[in-house]
Every structure is written in C-alpha cells, then in structure tokens.
Amino acid sequence: MGRQNGNWRRWWLRSALLVMMGVSLVGPSGGVQAATIGDVLDNSVTNSDNKLVDANGQAWDMYSIPHEVWGQNGEKKYIQLRERTADEGSFVKWGYTWDKDWENRGMRMSPDRPSDNTKLWGDRNSGTMAYISFKDPANGGAISGNYGLPSFSLNYVDRDDLVDVQDPVTAANFSGSGKGGTALGNDRLAGVFNPTRVKSKMKRSAATNNQFRLADGETFDNGFIQATGNVPIAAQIAKSESTIDSMLAGNWGVMVRVKVADGIDARSLAAAIDWDKSYYYLTVDSVTLLGQKISDINFPLQFDHHVYLDPHDSHAFFLKVKGIPYGFQTASTGFKGDRARMYLQRSRADYLDYLHNRNITPIIHDRCLNG
Predict the structure, then answer these.
(1) What contacts 4, CB < 8 A, 6 or more positions away?
(2) Contact criterion met (CB below 8 Å) for 315 and 326
(3) Mean pLDDT over all residues of the chain?
(4) What is the tens place of the pLDDT at every residue in 263-316?
(5) 249 touches 255 (CB < 8 A)
C-alpha cells in the first residue's frame, strides 16, 4: 500500500476507549490457571546504542517469553525462549521511563505538548506518533459526554466473561447486586451489557450501610475479580509519512496504572490475569480523509500481554492498551487483483485479542438489554 498524503493525520480524534478487563483476575482460591510466565524482563538493560537486545545481540522481540541468564562478566542478559501464545503474558521491570535525562540518553514515550508531536516523531525522539490527552484539545475541558463519563470498576463475579456498564453509578449497582444486595431494576438492567449473565458475588444495600460485602451463600473460592472501565481520550497524530506505518504496527495506546491496598501482593495478583478473557472497544470520531468527514471508525485493540512493574512501589503495576499490529497484503505479496487486504502480523499470538474486540454502540439508549 502506498503511503497517503492527506491532512487527516493533523486532526484531533475524539475517541472513547472502553476496556473490559475480562482480564479477569483470579480470586483467592480457584479460578484460572495463571499464564503470566517467564522471568522479569529488565527493560533498562540496553546496549551502547540504547537498544534492548538478547544474550545473542539480537533485537528483543516483545512477543518473546524472557529467560534470565548471566554473562561471562556477571552482567544480566536474557534469552528469548519462544513466542507467547494467545493466552500468555510476561513481566517487565519498568512501567515508565527510568531515565529522565532525555537529551543524553533514552527516548521519551510521548511528547509533553501536542505542538511538539510532529517534530519529535520526525526526529525519532518520541516512541509514538500519537499525543494522547484526557482533555478536549479544543477547549482544555472534559471530552464530550457523548462517550460517557470516565469510570473504572472492580467486580467480584462468578465467571470470567464480558460485562460492560454505561456509567459509574450502574457499575457500582452491578457490583453490589449479588444475593442479599439490592437487585438491579429494569432501568439499570438497560445499562448493563451482560450476554452470558455474569453474576456478582458481592452485595450492597441499606442493610450493609451501603458497603460492599460478600453475597449471601458465596465464598472467596472460584471467583474472578473483573475490571471494566470507560476512558474517553483525544489523540493528535503526527504529520509524517511514517505515521500510517506506525499506526499499523499498533504503536499507540495508553498505560493503565493499577494500585492495590496494603497487604495485597500486586505482583501475585497481576500474575493471575486471564489474558484470553480480555475485551476491548474503541471508536474514533471526526476524521477528515480526502476532504470527507468519516465517523465511527473502529480500531482493534489489545493489552500487550505484559505486566509492567514499578520497582519503587510494590503495590502498583501497569497494563498497556495498544493497537494490534497489522500488515497489508497486496498483489505483489500474494493477493491477486487491484486491492489490498489487512492481516494480523502475529496471528498466532493476537487472534484472540482481535476476536474479542466488540462493536458496542457508545450511545446509552442503543445498549442491549440483558438481565
């Protein structure tokens, strides 16, 4: 596919990112077989060119399961065991850039200001071609309410399937709707997308002083901690000939920081992520292409199957939500005719994430009714 020269890359894209972490986290007993494996990859150990390489000097492939070894001089190195599968993940030491001396070493993850985006990307001084903001770039205020309120909810449920809620109040009501709690009325059921009838194992009502408690007859066995959220964002795309290539590589996204309470081992909790039960939804509005305005473009997303730790805070970890890497197949690469078609660059590892991207209409009155 030839690179495009349209001006749409300069436009602000308003989007709503709904991340359903059916990335269900296993409960205290039972649940999924943890598949966050391998040694912790120290992404601060780079070569003289500031690149992450393996013990053989080959560029590190983030789809690889890491295995730690030691060099002849006692230095830490890593072997790439194999490519991860669709239901596996691994740990990475740092969830943010560890070196703040941008001018002398390292590359910033993203620009500090949207006005710097195109130059930094063009000079190869930024890790992404997208500047992402949680504010409306037009006025500095909140992003349009058409995409719902920002929210994040943790639910303790009986199975690791998709649940999506339309607003923070509905999310809280669902969390406390287990036996003995206040059941969801029809008005609230309309705001819950729950095709397999997942049930909460927690209750909340006036009898519990509006506090969350274990539902009647439930235990902490064989349950799942499920996270669901809505993150409205705006993104400015760098004006560059390489932007499309970077977008197809999935080189854009957001980091989600998870902080657990004292007494909880964040790493053990993160190790129990059920990677093959992650669901995503992204819609992009107000894109101008060749003079035409195109709305409601969907881009497939994925968690990148890494748990990024914080060496300075044992109660925190990060999850990255990013685009799925795509390629184009044309006549010269085996596809006949005058067309090109997209394909997954790493289909064995990414096919489940692709299938779990949901086309959920982000307008409240269009939501499905599920009890």
Answers:
(1) 244
(2) no
(3) 77
(4) 888 888 888 888 888 877 776 665 555 555 656 566 788 889 999 998 888 899
(5) no
Which one, of 97, 92, 99, lies nearest residue 110 by Cα?
Answer: 97
Structure tokens at 300: 């497939």
Report the DSSP pairing between strands 64-70 and 224-237: unpaired
C-alpha distance from residue 260 to each of 15, 16, 341 (Å): 28, 25, 43
**DSSP assignments along 46-59, one per residue:** --TTS--B-TTSPB
Q: What is the pTM of this model?
A: 0.79
CB 116 within 8 A of CB 219: no
pLDDT tens sequence across 189-241 = 888 888 889 999 999 999 899 999 999 999 888 888 888 877 788 878 888 88
Neighbours of 180 (CB within 10 A): 19
Give me the amino acid identity at 77: K
Do the beta carbons of residue 354 and residue 344 sit within 8 Å?
A: yes
Closest of 197, 155, 194 to residue 176, by C-alpha: 155
DSSP 3-state of 262: coil
| Alpha carbon of residue 343 to chain centroid | 20
CA distance 111 to 101: 14
Mean pLDDT of 63-80: 91
Residue 283 is inside which H or E element, if any?
strand 279-285
Tokens of 33: 């077989």
The bridge status of strand 306-309 relative to strand 90-92 is parallel
Contacts of 44 (CB under 8 A, 6+ apart): 93, 94, 98, 99
* Three-state DSSP class for residue 319: strand
Instruction: Let me know: does 117 contact 131? Beta carbons within 8 Å.
Output: yes
Tokens of 67: 């295995």
- Measured in degrees and rounded to the nearest 5, phi and psi for residue 277 equal -125, 50
Least confident segment among 50-59, 100-109, 140-149, 185-194: 100-109
Q: Are 65 and 78 in contact (CB under 8 A)?
A: no
